[in-house]
Automatic annotation (TrEMBL):
It comes from Pontibacillus halophilus JSM 076056 = DSM 19796. PROSITE patterns: GATASE_TYPE_1. Coiled coil: none annotated. The active site is at residues 248, 333, 335. Composed of two chains; the small (or glutamine) chain promotes the hydrolysis of glutamine to ammonia, which is used by the large (or ammonia) chain to synthesize carbamoyl phosphate. Tetramer of heterodimers (alpha,beta)4. Keywords: Amino-acid biosynthesis, Arginine biosynthesis, ATP-binding, Glutamine amidotransferase, Ligase, Nucleotide-binding, Pyrimidine biosynthesis. SUPFAM superfamilies: Carbamoyl phosphate synthetase, small subunit N-terminal domain (SSF52021), Class I glutamine amidotransferase-like (SSF52317). NCBIfam families: CPSaseIIsmall, PRK12838.1. The lineage of its organism: Bacteria, Bacillati, Bacillota, Bacilli, Bacillales. It comes from the Bacteria. This is Carbamoyl phosphate synthase small chain. GO terms for biological process: 'de novo' pyrimidine nucleobase biosynthetic process; 'de novo' UMP biosynthetic process; glutamine metabolic process; L-arginine biosynthetic process.
């Protein structure tokens, strides 16, 4: 028998719909994603740890779920809100429905909600806390509980790997610092035959140095970058020694490590059709994005970083490059899972950067021998 469920926001706004997924009553930050496809990658993206995601596309689950498109083994999203959850997926790769997937992973959801109305409310008032409850529980009691709730600020620790592991390859040696890494990043490196060592978020610069990498990638991840202070210290050291590439949270950590500032956005960027302009070439790329914090452009003036790309929708910083060291970053997701592949070439730029650094090192060694 299908049960009704209620989604209550901390400002007292509420929505009643039909329960899907797990029957747990869970709270989280309510956000929205504008992607028309890629719901499986979104739900399994570790950067949604602690959040309840509203899908603006009216039907979710129409092609089901399969093992090939997971972005992490165990999803950490706190819930989903949809207009309609498809019960009969049509796809030859389908293995289970949206409801079955959410139930198996203990994730609550709700359907039958006016997601357009909810999205407009978030755009106007900003992202806010929310909770799934039974329809019988008084709104006032839920709101009081939400206002007294302080979510864990150490969300990166919840999604990062606990121990280092290796994805072997014959190419460049890359240390990938896992702040909540999407598997799409690993897929891009394995396509380029890299030897990747994935390490926890709190790995020190000395530990990375002992791995003797050709380059270091700082991955995406959830939450406020200022909460990961140990990583900021590590980044400050390694970018002076190794070619460094930052994606999403990694981009923000590079900015903080170089003396810039970050701030929380009103409702963030979450979707697969965000236009970004490259300043030098003038080209515009369509990108996949998922972040609630951004680099404050005015804070870059006293750093050795320059803006290389910006968002056409709101003018926020989308790319940085270091003026002295081989280091660059992107606020969006060039691994494109889900989303367009316009910016996939950033991985090739990172490979070229590592090759150039190895070439300079070889010349220095030859000069020393002479």
């Amino acid at each position: 028998m299908k049960q009704n469920r209620k989604l209550v926001l901390e400002d007292g706004t509420f929505f009643v719909g039909e329960a899907i997924g797990s029957d747990v009553d869970q709270s989280g930050e309510v956000v929205f994603n504008t992607g028309m496809t890629g719901y499986q990658e979104i739900i399994t993206d570790p950067s949604y740890c602690g959040q309840i995601v509203t899908f603006t596309y009216p039907m979710i689950g129409n092609y089901g779920f399969n093992r090939d498109d997971y972005e992490t083994v165990k999803p950490s999203i706190h819930g989903v809100v949809v207009k309609e959850a498809n019960e009969y997926p049509s796809n030859f790769r389908n293995e289970e429905t949206l409801h079955e997937f959410l139930s198996a992973h203990g994730i609550p959801g709700i359907q039958g909600v006016d997601t357009r109305k909810l999205t407009k409310h978030i755009r106007k008032e900003g992202s806010m806390k929310g909770a799934f409850t039974s329809v019988e529980e008084p709104i006032e009691a839920v709101v009081a509980r939400l206002r007294d709730t302080s979510f864990s600020r150490n969300v990166v620790a919840r999604v990062s790997t606990i121990k280092p592991y290796v994805v072997p390859g014959r190419g460049h040696r890359v240390v990938l610092v896992d702040f909540g890494m999407k598997h799409g990043i690993l897929r891009e490196f394995t396509k380029r035959h890299c030897h990747v060592t994935v390490v926890p978020y709190n790995t020190s610069a000395e530990e990375i140095r002992r791995l003797n990498p050709d380059g270091v990638l700082l991955s995406n991840g959830p939450g406020d970058p200022k909460d990961v202070q140990e990583a900021i210290e590590m980044v400050r050291t390694i970018l002076e020694e190794y070619p460094t590439f930052g994606i999403c949270l990694g981009h923000q950590l590079i900015a903080l490590a170089c003396g810039a500032n970050t701030e929380k956005m009103k409702f963030g960027h979450r979707g697969s059709n965000h236009p970004v302009k490259h300043i030098e070439s003038g080209s515009v790329y369509m990108t996949s994005q998922n972040h609630g914090y951004a680099v404050v452009e005015s804070s870059l003036s006293h750093t050795q970083l320059e803006v290389t790309q910006y968002a056409l929708n709101d003018g926020t910083v989308e790319g940085l490059a270091h003026l002295v060291y081989p280091c660059f970053s992107a606020q969006y997701h060039p691994e494109s899972a889900p989303g367009p592949e316009d910016s996939n070439e950033l991985f090739d730029e990172f490979i070229e950067m590592m090759e150039e650094a190895k070439g300079r090192e070889k010349v220095l060694c030859q000069n020393v021998q002479i």
